[in-house]
Each structure stands twice: as C-alpha cells, then as structure tokens.
Amino acid sequence: MKKTAILGFGKSGQSAYNLLKSIKEDVCVFDDRNLKEPDKNFFFGKNGDRFYEFEFDEIVTSPGISRFHPFIQYAVKKNIPIISELELGFRFASCPIIAITGTNGKTTTVALIERIMKKANKKVIACGNYGFPITKAVKSLKNPDYLIVEVSSYQLEFIKDFKPFIASILNIGSDHIKWHGSKEEYKKAKLKIFKNQEPCDYFIKNNEDDYIYNGKAKLLKFSKKDNNAECFLNKDKVVVNYKSNIIIKNMKLLGAGNLENVAVAALVSQICGIEDKTIVEVTQDMENLKHRIEFIGELDGVKFYNDSKSTNIDSVVNALNSFEGNNIVLILGGKHKGEPFSSLIELLKEKTRAVVVYGEDRKLILKDLEKMIPIPLPALNLRGAVIGAFEVAAKGDIVLFSPGGSSCEPFANFEERGEAFKKEFEKYKYDYEHAPKI
User: Fold this and answer.
1) How many separate domains does the chain show?
2) I need a surface site. Which of 107, 282, 297, 322 has the fewest CB within 10 A?
3) Same domain membership, residue 335 and residue 253
4) What whole-number distance in Å separates Cα of residue 49 and Cα of residue 112?
5) Residue 287 contacts by C-beta under 8 Å, 6 or more apart in sequence?
6) How many other CB atoms sit within 10 Å of the CB of residue 100?
7) Whole domain around residue 227: which residue ranges?
8) What's the predicted TM-score (pTM) here?
9) pLDDT for 306-343, tens place per residue?
10) How far apart are CA 322 and CA 335, in angstroms?
11) Which of 248, 172, 152, 162 is nearest to 197 (CA)?
12) CA distance linking residue 132 with residue 390, whole number of Å
C-alpha cells in the first residue's frame, strides 16, 4: 500500500486527508502546531519530528508549508516526490479545469466566471483558494462541466502533471518573496501554470507582464495598450475582440484591477461558448466582494472603504487608482513583507490628503515613508487608525483602508482584519452620531 505524508492540517490538509482515506491509502499527518492528535497517524508539535522515522512514497504539502521547511528539504534530498494539494485534486478531476492565478484579483475573477457559468446553466464548482479545496470539490458534484480553480504560487510550486484546459495569470507583482526566496522564484512558480498545457488548451496572458510565454496552448491576450489584443481595456470599459465583439461598460465593480478580472472572465466564457448577453449581464451586475474596496458606510460626508485584502504594494496602487482626485486618507499597516513602501511616495503625494499607519510594523512603514510630506500619522491599533483618519478628513473625502501588508496580531487573516475594521467604523460612527452636540 502506498504510504503518504500530509504536511499541514489546515483546510487543504484536512481535505487531502479525507480524499486519501476514502481510497484506503496509508496516510500520516504532520503539523508544527500543537493540535489535538486524533489517532496514532497524526504527529503534531514536537511529535512531528517522527517524520524522519518513516519511509514515504509521496508527500502532499499544504500552501502554508514553506519550501524551506526542514521536512521539504529532507524530502528533496531523499528524492521523495512532493506534490501540492492542487496536484492531488487534479488526479481525481473528471472535467476540464479553469485555473486562475496572479498577484491580485484571483478571487474576484473566479467568482465572476462562476456566476457567468451558473447563469448559463453550467454545472461548475469554484474551488482552490476560493470555496472548497480542490480535493473536496472533485467529490462534491456529479458530472460537473468545469472546475474553476483559484491557484496560488504556493500550490503551483509543487505541481507535476496539473494541466488546466484554460489558464490565466492576471498579473505578476511582488509578493510572497520570503516564502519563495526571491521575486524570480515567485515568478517561476506562477509560470508553471501553463507548463503542461497542450495545443488544445488555452492560456490568457496580461500583455503588460514582462515574461516570455513559451507554452503550447493557444495564446489570448488582454491589454491596456494594444487595441489589437483579444481583449482591450479602455479606461472604464472592456472591449472583447475574440469570438465576437462585445463592449462591457457601466460596471458596478470598483477598482482599476477589476478591468483585468472582467477581461479574463469574458475571454474564458467565450472560449466555453457562453452567450455574449450572459457575459455582459453578469459582469455589469457584479459588485465588489467583501474586503476588496468594499464600501462600508459614510460619516459626516466622509466615505469609508474596506480593502483589507490588500496585502502587498501592488494592491495599494490598484486601490488608490480606483478613485478620482486627491482626497483620499489612506490607512496602511500590517506585517512589513520586505517590499519598501517608499515606492508609493509619489502616488501618495498625488492621491492622498493624509496617510495613517497602524499596527506592529508601523515603525518600519513610517521609516519607509520618512520623506513623505505631510508626515504620516502613527496609530497604535485599528480603532486609533479609524479615529485618526476621520479627524484629518474633510467632507467629500474618502477613508481607504488598504493596508499593503499581511495580517498581524490579533488577526489571523485579512477577513478577520477587515471585519474588525468594519466594526471599529460602526462603533465610532455610533459614538460620533450620539455624542452631545457642541
């Protein structure tokens, strides 16, 4: 019997375990965290060192496990095959896969494609980093038409045969440098998405990204500069020039990056034979997902937006460029990921009235912005950031929470952080509106 190790027992690790146990495979699970061990095949915390006592035929690694983890390094040295949960799920897929990756915009694009497909009465599951893990999705729906998979660079790092029918890289910025070791390694991981594609498959490329496409799949492009591309992004509209000509405009989606997301969703849908009318209706009606330039309310003429999903510098740029004018009060914060915030200074001068910096790495961010005029304001926590931002805002201004760093204590992820921001806004709004009038 094949013996497999699963590294990490989060959502994807649990799903991989359930799938392998359903086919009676011999599985051991390892996690660095001190979790409760369900039975003798689980090794958590210090017990994880028993990993070296076994001989495994294969290792399934979770996205949270660094490629520099001792177990991964040991497996590489011993030539033990390592695959991601994405690769494992692909082995059991019974339908074509649509795979979307990129530094920013993956979730919105996957959600768009899912809604278009369902509107067209297609049987689809959105999975990967959005919805179910793929190892759960492959067992969740009988005879699906497509799996729509949000794919991370972590998952692509350890693929072997993964081959999507349609793949797209929305954009490549700077992110996850510590995990991959360098921006070049991060980019290499992203480009693996098309390495196994064949001439009957499709790859959709951002024409402004600076890599050379050398895959075998049919190449379609979207571009802000080349109006001969299969999809041309023209200010506030998307012009599709592929199977038929359609123009998508008057969209509810807010954010400069959402034009890229709509472009890819439209091209994917045309490849799959969806009617243009359906594509236009869904893309025009779609609104921003939670924590992605999400409008949360207004206080005394100041509008507040929650963009907690902003975990890198590129996403801050996208958020700032989503608004006209120079009346933004920007809240930055979170863990500093090594990418200097100083690259934002010129755009901040152009787009913001003021900048507030909160959280545990505020000193590092403030250091990056030391040449910024006016000087950014420090805040200890989110409540202080909300109050400070409102105090320096004027009627008609926008307070934009777009941290640019990953979540830090006490938040486990960007969702918790975004919900906390919304609660702090609601609390302060209530206190402000019920305070005695002067």
Assistant:
1) 3
2) 297
3) no
4) 43
5) 252, 253
6) 32
7) 87-285
8) 0.87
9) 999 999 998 999 899 989 889 999 999 988 888 899 99
10) 24
11) 162
12) 38
